[in-house]
Every structure is written in C-alpha cells, then in structure tokens.
Amino acid sequence: MVKIKKNIAISDSGFVFDPGSGDSYSLNPSGLEIVQMIKLGKDFSAILEAVTEKYEVDSDSFERYYYDFIATLAQLHLTEPDGKD
Amino acid sequence: MTKLAFERPIIQRINAGLPSKYGMSHRLEPLSHIDGTPIKDLIGEFGSPLFVLSESTIRKTYKEAHRAFSSRYPNVQFAWSYKTNYLNAVCNVFHQEGAWAEVVSGFEYDKAIANGVPGELILFNGPDKSTEDLQKAIRNNSLIHIDHFDELYEIIHLSKEMTERPKVAIRVNMDTGIYPKWDRFGFNYENGEAWDALNRIMANKNLDLMGLHTHIGTYMMSVDAYRIAAGKLADLAIKLERKHGHVLKYIDMGGGFASKNTLRGAYYPGTDTAPSFDDFAEAITSVLMSSDIKPDHLPMLILETGRAMIDDAGYLVGTVIANKRLADGRRATILDAGVNLLFTAFWYEHDVRPVQPVSDQTEDTTLYGPLCMNIDVIRGNVMFPLLKKGDQYVIKRVGAYNNTQWMQFITLRPNVVMLDSKGNPHLIRKREVLETINSQEVMPEHLKQFKL
Ligand SMILES: Cc1ncc(COP(=O)(O)O)c(C=O)c1O
C-alpha cells in the first residue's frame, strides 16, 4: 500500500510542504481528496469505490489517473520508497 | 443523483520567484462555441480533427481593413492572396466583398479564373510563370507583375506575336530598414535596377506599364517599413511622370501585415504587439498623400493582405488521444492534429484552448500531434489545463497558410467547414479518403502481384 511520508505537511487547501527538500507543491481538489484517503490508510480499491460513487468517472479511467498520480508523487519523493499497492 | 465532474488528480511544484513570462495567473478560458455553434456538435457531425472557418469573421476583418484604408485614401483595392488560403469558398467570400485575385502560379491563376474572377482583375505575381501562363495572362488582360529581366524579355517577345498588349507592372525590392532584406524577388530600388527596368518597358511600344508592386516581407510588425516602401514607390512614380509623362494606374503595396498570432519565442503575445490596420493604413496613405504625385494623378492603392485578413477566421478543433508523463515529469498530451495539418505551429505559439469547462488547475504540458516524429509539436511547455482522453480542444487563428501548406503525411486531411453568417456549417472541402491518394498512383504491371 502507498504511504505518504510522515514528515510531509498537507493543508486542507491542498498546499503541500516537504521539510526534507524545502519544496512546496499544490494539489488540485481531486488530488487532495486522494492523498487524504491514502493518509487514512485506504487502498486502491477503497479509493476507487469512493471516487466512482461520487464522481462521473469510470473505473478504467480512474485507474489510469490514479497510478499516474501515484507515480508523480513517487517521482517527487513524497511517498515512502517501499510503499507498494 | 447526478455525479460530480471528475478531474484528473495532479500535484505540482510551486515555483517561488519569477513569474512565468505571461505573469503568475494565466488562465486559459475554454472556447465551447464558434459563431454560436457548439464545437462538440461540429465534431459530432463532421469528425475530428476538423477545420472550421467563420464567414462572418472573414467579412468583418475585410470590412475593417478596407475601411482603414478607404477612409484615408480615395482609391483603394484589395486583392485576395490565393496562397494564403485558396479554398474556393474562402476566395469567393473575398470576391463577394470586392477583392480581386492575387496569384503566384499557373495553378492559382486557373483557380481564380475557375472561380469566375475576370482576367483583368487578376494580379499575377511570382518568379515562376511559364510561357503558357504568360500567354494566357496576356490574352486575358491580366496584370503581370514582372519579377526579373528574363521574364521582361519573354513578355516583350510574346507581345510581338500576340495581338493583345501585355499589361505589366514590376515588382520592386528595397531596403526598408528591416532584416532580413527580401531582395530575391523583383528589381532592386537602391542599385537602380528597378528604374532601369521601368525605362526599358517605357521604351517598348508594345507594353502597357500599369503600376508598381512590392511585397516587403511577411508578419511585419513595423509600420515604418511600409512608410519607407511607399515613399520609394512614390519616387519612382514621380520620376516616371517627369521623364516619360506616364501616369501609373496603381501602386501595389503587397501583403505582410502581422496577424495577432504570437511568434515562437516572442516575449509578448501577438494580440498586444501586432499593429492595427489603421496603423498600417496611416503609414502608407500619409506618405502617398503627401508625396509630389499630383492629387488628380494619385494611383489606385492595391493591397494583397493575406495572413492578417484570414488568420482570425480559422479554427482547428479536435480530440485528445492520450496523456503521457515525460521522463522529466512533465505532462505530454497527444492531440489528433499534428504539424501535418498545422504547418504554422513551426512559426507560432498557437493559442490552444479546451472546449469543455475545466478547473483553474494547469500543468506544464507539451502538446504533441499524432505523427510518429519528434518534430510533431503543436505547443511546447504551455501551462495547460488537465484534458483527458476524449476531451476536445480548439486551436485559434489558423486561417492563414494551413489549408494551403498542409501535408498529406501519415494521415489524410480532414473535413473543412465554413460557418455562414447564421452559424450554420457548410462542408467546403471533403475529407480525403484512401482513394483520393491512390487515384493519383499508377502501378506498373509487373508489380501488381506478390506472394508472401
Ligand atoms: C506577392 C505576395 N503578396 C501577398 C502575400 C501575402 O502576404 P501576407 O500573408 O504576409 O499578408 C504574399 C505572401 O508571401 C506574397 O508573396
């Protein structure tokens, strides 16, 4: 399961601060929602269920966006390196 | 219960420090309709991608340009530069507005004739006129703009064999203070070549010298260059009257006005930097009006405005094929139209917009076409909203040169529609099919069969 690094600060408006690198980022609303679910320990299937229930998106499309998003978080070193889904 | 619209999740680095070159908050407004017609419906009916031309924008732009000149000068005539967009429907809108035709090849000449333009209202420019082209133009009393001495002597030769008198002008090139100098076409002003050519024409009893022509460059952002050019042509006109008592019918200032597109690498958007028709008109007409040409001998002022006349009227609409993440983390969005259809992507940073409403969120994106080639970039590094596969986009200001310089490469060229003044679409060029291409090919007998 993907884990967001513990020291990463995430505000309710989607502002992200990485004290390790000093970099800050912004999440769009859907990105923020997903990150918050990941922080609550939800896995992909739970997130998929929550998102497809609320939003107009099919599961195939969501799966693609989700993994692309997770890959970006990893590229930015915001997730734990051993986090596997 | 209806569900909420979903947007791809993204995260991006917040860059402290310098704002991007267009400032921090750069929002791309979606464009959902053209002339009141939903782009979604146009794609639904005519396919994707699709060129859309707005008849009302063409007419509005033409009227604007015409008014700018005719409110300052007594005798103004526009000629539609066929190479800029020679789809017949486009040409005919200009002809309905009163424009003559400006052509640079036998093919374009024949197209103008086939559209019904009277021969004597066709300006024949360019270095490449075959003997047959010249004979045809002479027979039809067309206005032949001579490019070089070989052409002048061929016309003199033809005039001895034919009954019609060739109606000619010369193209003049000159230093207008801009770089690069266009000295490839026509006769040079500064070194006396143009004056020499005019004297040879005047010495010949078979030719009618009608006017002077110049085309000083394209996408010109300097009105001063036009002021200088108009001054030099006026000088030649005055010298002709002084020495030969010859009064010219017209001075043709060519085309070249910048359109509102943004050049690649330009710091400011073209909408802010392109001079208006009024600016160009003021520069040109004030020089002619204040020259030593006698008021009752003021020649007709001809303009061959191309890109500035049609760019705004053209749109290329289409569909997102896919999204990718580049190795450095940037977003790559693949569109269904590439540089094969949008030749001007090599020159311009085109204004690309989403068709459907999107959120404020943007991401550093490169927009690629569908060709299997590295050069197929529609827009590099643009802060672009998140479009998903199947979403639609629209590229603005593509009316000039794309429908003439597009390539049949890897894919076939799509439908072109024109929206009439009520916004109703009319198909004006059918999409190509395999047969369009194959019908031009011939298979040698011995290559017809193969076994694999
Ligand atoms: C002789 C001549 N006239 C007019 C034009 C139209 O120029 P533009 O599109 O820059 O207005 C051209 C374009 O190259 C040209 O060569």
From TrEMBL, chain A:
Gene3D superfamilies: Coenzyme PQQ synthesis protein D (PqqD) (1.10.10.1150). Pfam families: PqqD. NCBIfam families: PqqD_rel_X. This is HPr-rel-A system PqqD family peptide chaperone. The lineage of its organism: Bacteria, Pseudomonadati, Bacteroidota, Cytophagia, Cytophagales.
Automatic annotation (TrEMBL), chain B:
Residues 63-309 form the Orn/DAP/Arg decarboxylase 2 N-terminal domain. Its EC number is 5.1.1.1. The keyword Isomerase applies. It comes from Aquiflexum gelatinilyticum. Keywords: Isomerase, Pyridoxal phosphate. CDD domains: PLPDE_III_MccE_like. One of its GO terms (biological process) is lysine biosynthetic process via diaminopimelate. InterPro entries: Ala_racemase/Decarboxylase_C, De-COase2_C, De-COase2_N, PLP-binding_barrel. The keyword tRNA processing does not apply. This is Alanine racemase. Its cofactor is pyridoxal 5'-phosphate. It holds the Pfam family Orn_Arg_deC_N. Residues 310-399 form the Orn/DAP/Arg decarboxylase 2 C-terminal domain. One of its GO terms (molecular function) is alanine racemase activity. It comes from the Bacteria. Transmembrane segments: none annotated.
